[in-house]
Amino acid sequence: MKYTEEHEWLRVDGDLIVVGITEYAAKQLGDVVFVELPEIESQVAKGDEVCVIESVKAASDILAPLEGEIVEVNEALVDNPALVNEDPTGEAWFFKLKIDDLSVLDTLMDEDEYADFIA
Amino acid sequence: MADLQHLPLAALHAELGAKMTPFAGWEMPLQYPAGVMQEHLHCRAHAALFDVSHMGQVMLRGPGAAVALEALVGADLVGLADGRQRYAVFTDDAGGVLDDLMVARRGDDLFLVVNAANADADVAHLRAHLPAGIALEVVRDRALIALQGPQAEAALAALIPDAAALRFMDAVVLDWDGAALWVSRSGYTGEDGYEISVPVARAEAFARALLAQPGVAPAGLGARDSLRLEAGLPLHGQDIDATVSPIEAGLAFSVGRARRPGGARPGGFPGAGRILHELAHGPARARAGLLPEGRAPMRAGTLLFESEDATTPMGHVTSGGFGPSLERPVAMGLMPTRLCVPGTRVYGEVRGRRLPAVVAALPFRAPGYRK
């Protein structure tokens, strides 16, 4: 698993990247009550606001961690936003991204580096 | 940022695992480990303890305090019985709301609780307008604790049996273990409950004694906000401010019958001309409840439109979020009065899209007050 400074995790799944938010981020957000997902087949640039996530108190965005194409989104989050709090690194993935070059993942933090980052 | 003030119960909040946040110059508990949603639901089902010691507590002493304060608010305070409390709003000469407050009568004296963010301005306003002979004391040696929810009565009565006999908006002095507590049966959640002013030296022991009662759990500012939103209660600085009149805000009840035309003491408060005119003829705009049809919350500031393609906004959301008890987004907004009819569909612009919302009567939930 790789991590961004925006508290997203990235997991390689075949030739795709699965993206979600970390347990730390889910805890900071609090109870998630609304999730808006990007459109499938949309091209995104690194840093684009691709998802909206709202807790009882506030709204925030999930940014595209890398340039690529959104090929799948997790509709289960729309019906049950609380999944983000219940299983942020498992069932509550947000989208799958197709990227040209998997090696860019090497520029991201690994688990130990992320643990230091949030410490 | 200027140094934050710390609550008398700061150590207890830390021990309870509170996540703190700056609010109105104070470091306040935003939530505890249970989280906003659980704290909210716990309050509706059991009882929640809120530390609201940031709020301003002010005593006005002396014969004529009620008459004097009536010069600044539209409430009937002369007619406020000893041991009773009433909601009031400070208005300015244009009829806008400077702050809203609770006023409790104790003999000749009045005990005021005002919003933290406005406390200094309110005290200056009072000092500038009260006649000589009325002593104003800012009460700094007392914490303020709100105990709210259906189990609040049992919890407080376990410590102070007489608390059970209070009715909604009673405000009395009760003894707890040698400490004089100023207890009112009121709150800001739409639930039955109490607000209790307690000497700082005894505040932590008192809070711990309440938390030890069955069903009592701490709740933070986050839950306080979602609870008051579901209860349709306005928040100064958001739903009401100097640009909004109390009549527009749906607070006509804060203008006593005695202060209206034909009453014993009509008018005589700042902005009375506009306010009494709006009372008689209706305001051009009003505060309305809104139920967004989808799942997306409509937050404060969301522009409201009469139709999907209207070019100019007709109003805006003043408070909005998710209502945990209603399990849906809820909001309040200021809109033209003709649209403030329950069932009317309007549109809020959220992230560039017009999303439908239906006007609903306030409060969204029937209150649990013990009248």
UniProtKB/TrEMBL annotation, chain A:
Organism phylogeny: Bacteria, Pseudomonadati, Pseudomonadota, Alphaproteobacteria, Rhodobacterales
Superkingdom of the source species: Bacteria
CDD domains referenced in this protein's UniProt entry, alphabetically: GCS_H
One protein family per Pfam: GCV_H
Family, as annotated: Belongs to the GcvH family.
Protein name: Glycine cleavage system H protein
Gene Ontology annotations for the cellular component aspect, listed alphabetically: cytosol; glycine cleavage complex
Keywords, alphabetical: Lipoyl
Names of required cofactors: (R)-lipoate
Domain Lipoyl-binding: 16-98
PROSITE patterns, alphabetized: BIOTINYL_LIPOYL
N6-lipoyllysine modified-residue sites: 57
Listed PANTHER family: GLYCINE CLEAVAGE SYSTEM H PROTEIN, GLYCINE CLEAVAGE SYSTEM H PROTEIN-RELATED
TrEMBL record, chain B:
SUPFAM superfamilies in alphabetical order: Aminomethyltransferase beta-barrel domain (SSF101790), Folate-binding domain (SSF103025)
Domain GCVT N-terminal: residue ranges: 11-256
Annotated positions binding substrate: 195
GO biological process: glycine catabolic process
Gene Ontology annotations for the cellular component aspect, listed alphabetically: glycine cleavage complex
Top-level taxon of origin: Bacteria
Keywords: Aminotransferase, Transferase
Gene3D superfamilies cross-referenced by the UniProt entry: Aminomethyltransferase beta-barrel domains, Aminomethyltransferase fragment, Probable tRNA modification gtpase trme, domain 1
Residue ranges occupied by any Aminomethyltransferase C-terminal domain in the UniProt entry: 285-364
EC top class, as a word: transferase
Keyword Transferase on entry: yes
Listed Pfam families: GCV_T (PF01571), GCV_T_C (PF08669)
UniProt KW Transferase keyword: yes
Reaction(s) the record says it catalyses: N(6)-[(R)-S(8)-aminomethyldihydrolipoyl]-L-lysyl-[protein] + (6S)-5,6,7,8-tetrahydrofolate = N(6)-[(R)-dihydrolipoyl]-L-lysyl-[protein] + (6R)-5,10-methylene-5,6,7,8-tetrahydrofolate + NH4(+)
UniProt GO MF annotations: aminomethyltransferase activity; transaminase activity
Known EC number: 2.1.2.10
Entry-linked NCBIfam families: gcvT, PRK00389.1, PRK13579.1
Family note: Belongs to the GcvT family.
Protein name, UniProt field: aminomethyltransferase
Organism encoding this protein: Rhodobaculum claviforme
